[in-house]
Amino acid sequence: MILNMRSIWKNDEGAAIITVMLILLTLVIITPVLFYVVGSEARLSANHADMSQAYFVARSGAEAASDYVVKNFDLAEAEDDLREDEEFVEFINNAPRDLNFESETGSLEEIEYEIRENSVIITANGEFNEIPDTAKIEVRKPRTLFDY
Predict the structure, then answer these.
(1) By C-alpha distance, which of 148, 132, 147, 137 is closest to 51?
(2) From 87's CA, which of 7, 58, 72, 93 has a CA 20 to 30 Å away?
(3) pLDDT band with cut points at 50, 70 and 90 for residue 11
(4) For the whole model, what pTM was predicted?
(5) Backbone φ, ψ for residue 144 (5° rounding)
(6) pLDDT in tens, 91-130
């Protein structure tokens, strides 16, 4: 029996199975790619949330330290240059550096104070799910707060 090419293409038998096979092949290729993209987006979203949490842990430490400075020392009574005010320098040297905040997923690291002429800059480092971040607050004479 001689096969005629025209008769093979005119015969619709088997077209459905080929169509189904092509659709399945397409799905087999696309499905893993979709799972990868969705998983990547979920990880990015979780990392962004952790970065925000780390910042707010650090910020809460900086705010607590600035509250300590404002409530316990009258900056209006200090000398013009805070670096030369021995009482203020002693006060900052004894200021809390570790607020002992620690949870399963986050912690507040050391708080640092930098005395400038008319202000003190408070830097706090926080960590959440092993992602670090830093917050800074500047306390200026007499009682002005600037957030960085």
Answers:
(1) 132
(2) 58
(3) low
(4) 0.72
(5) -110, 135
(6) 999 998 887 777 888 888 889 999 999 999 999 999 999 9
Tell me the two tokens of residue 80.
């013009």
For residues 78 and 141, what is the distance between their CA atoms, to the nearest angstrom? 9
Structure tokens that stand for 11 in this block? 């015969």
Say how many C-beta atoms besides its own lie within 10 A of residue 138's C-beta. 19
Q: Are 127 and 134 in contact (CB under 8 A)?
A: no
Q: What is the mean pLDDT of residues 12-33?
A: 88
Give the span between the Cα atoms of 82 and 59, in whole angstroms.
Answer: 24
CB 54 within 8 A of CB 107: no
Enumerate the β-bridge partners of residue 17.
none
Give Dmax (Cα) for the chain.
112
Instruction: Give the length of the chain.
Output: 148
Contacts by 83-91 with C-beta closer than 8 Å and gap 24+? 83/115, 83/116, 83/117, 88/115, 89/115
* Helix H or strand E encompassing 60: helix 15-72
129: left (phi over 0), alpha (psi -120 to 50) or beta: left
By the 8 A CB rule, do 126 and 132 touch? yes
